[in-house]
């Protein structure tokens, strides 16, 4: 049996993806387009589901999102190293 300490959400990075996306003044569609220009097919609907915690974010997707948003993967995880 799997126990998720974060409740019903399927990821912990979604709120940070949304926060950084809005800080960068990007819509979900614009972020999806940016990822597609980088050669990765992560669409707007997938981004929406990631941000709401309705979809798992794979490790490679976290790296791609971080690169597209110009932040580190650690920032998307919301982890403070202090």
Summarize this structure briefly.
By secondary structure, the protein is an all-alpha fold.
Count of separate DSSP helical elements: 5
Given helix and strand content, the structural type is mainly alpha
Distance between the termini: 33 Å
- Largest sheet report: none
Based on the model shown, name its key terms.
single chain; 82 residues; mainly alpha; 5 helices; Lambda_DNA-bd_dom_sf; HTH cro/C1-type domain-containing protein; DNA binding; Cro/C1-type_HTH
Notes on the structure:
- The protein has 5 helices and no strands.
- The protein has a domain at 14-70.
- With 82 residues, it is mainly alpha-helical.
- The longest helix is centred in the C-terminal third of the chain and has 11 residues, at 59-69.
- The protein is globular, with a radius of gyration of 12 Å.
- The model has no long low-confidence stretch (mean pLDDT 90).
């Amino acid at each position: 049996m799997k126990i998720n300490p974060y409740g019903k959400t399927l990821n912990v990075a979604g709120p940070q993806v949304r926060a950084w996306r809005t800080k960068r003044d990007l819509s979900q569609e614009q972020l999806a387009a940016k990822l597609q220009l980088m050669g990765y097919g992560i669409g707007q609907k997938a981004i929406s589901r990631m941000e709401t915690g309705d979809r798992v974010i794979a490790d490679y997707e976290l790296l791609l999102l971080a690169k597209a948003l110009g932040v580190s993967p650690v920032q998307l995880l919301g982890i403070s190293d202090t």
